[in-house]
Amino acid sequence: MRLTILGGGGFRVPLVYGALLADRGAGRVTEVVLHDLDAGRLSAITRVLAEQAAGVPDAPAVRAVTDLDEALRGADFVFSAIRVGGLEGRAADERVALAQDVLGQETVGAGGIAYGLRTVPVAVDIARRVARLAPGAWVINFTNPAGLVTEAMSRHLGDRVIGICDSPVGLGRRIARVLGADPREAWIDYVGLNHLGWVRGLRVGGRDELPRLLADPALLGSFEEGRLFGAEWLRTLGAIPNEYLHYYYFNREAVDAYQRAGQTRGAFLRDQQARFYEELGDPHAPALDAWNRTRAEREATYMAENREAAGAGEREEDDLSGGYEKVALALMRAVARDERTTLILNVRNRGTLPELDSDAVVEVPCLVDANGAHPVSTGPLPGHAAGLVRSVKAVEREVLAAAASGSRAVAVKAFALHPLVDSVNVARRLVEEYTRVHPGLAYLG
Ligand code: G6P
Ligand code: MN
């Protein structure tokens, strides 16, 4: 079985390969094709993978290519994990928004819109090529903003593209742990859009345990989201939001904290990863060693500014290892081997959330089998959540429309309608600045 990874020179690829090495079951991936536009990054990551595979019998073969069509032909699974504009682009997304006193963040608010506008045309091109060259392949989209990008691709690939994120499963696991429940046995009632969802219940043996958590300030203070949002607000909401909702509920504090921070997250990662790839410019440098060191440093600082500002504290070590690669591998196994499982994924709505149309990509629990990911029906969202979901989805639709038409006015509309952008004039200035700094936005005229 062949897996193609787009963005194959990316820093997180060894996490995926590590998960593949641990998979000994029948029907596992035997061949990995790495695609990247940057040959230097590809060769650095290829060396890391070779060191990971040393001594592992039957390690999946690795091939690196820079031609996209060649990478796609014959693929059974495609992981799309690209970053259009690189980390320099992410840093600019963050910086430009903060300069206008609105949230500058990778996937949320103005920063997320800029990233989406840059990424959608590239993702659509990939989707079209997959449809032509590997029509039977399953595409697992890691590329952020994951919900929006998955929706763009689904217009060409239908339900053969599935978006993933590590945050819902991580949140569910933390809540289960606090409640003394086995995360594998708990049913997590998580609903929303990517980076915009809420855990509304956690059922074990037919009983909802979430009320017990919401009633207990000590339990609420014992995990990350509990500290991030505060017991009182969580009790008022009656749900545990995804950590990204912090940017909505405590927007002013988040913007302040980011403005005060010396460096944005994107700028930090840009510099850190530049050092890593540079270090591996020396063909004798131990690659896995350098990667491990860089990774430890990256995770120690994960969203640190925001967490510290909010008193959320450190993330537990356990959670750092249960990320994207595990969700992706679980999904791939379920599809390839018909091992039925449930996972929280980004898929087309198909009637699951009545407040959105059928083609809107939502993030909900899905039953996964050889036929793909089937969203499970859920109860309706409370009014406040439905309102937010609908307005953010409306913004996503404007981003898709701007990318399809190249209309600058529609791009302004996307920014202006976002709940975290507080003036049409700010939206205009954001479009001015973003089109000035991002070559990938030249299509907006
Ligand atoms: C979480 C989110 C991802 C996001 C990442 C950012 O894992 O689910 O979608 O890309 O955080 O982490 P970073 O280390 O790049 O700031
Ligand atoms: Mn995510």
From TrEMBL:
Primary enzyme class:
hydrolase
- Listed cofactors: NAD(+)
Q: Which family does it belong to?
A: Belongs to the glycosyl hydrolase 4 family.
Q: Which domain of life is it from?
A: Bacteria
Q: What is its EC number?
A: 3.2.1.86
Q: Which keywords does UniProt give here?
A: Glycosidase, Hydrolase, Manganese, Metal-binding, NAD
Q: Which SUPFAM superfamilies match?
A: LDH C-terminal domain-like, NAD(P)-binding Rossmann-fold domains
Tell me which Pfam families the record gives: Glyco_hydro_4, Glyco_hydro_4C
**Domain Glycosyl hydrolase family 4 C-terminal span(s) in chain numbering:** 190-421
User: Where is coiled-coil annotated?
Assistant: none
Cofactor annotation remark: Binds 1 NAD(+) per subunit.
What GO molecular function terms would the record report?
A: 6-phospho-beta-glucosidase activity
Instruction: Provide the protein name.
Output: 6-phospho-beta-glucosidase
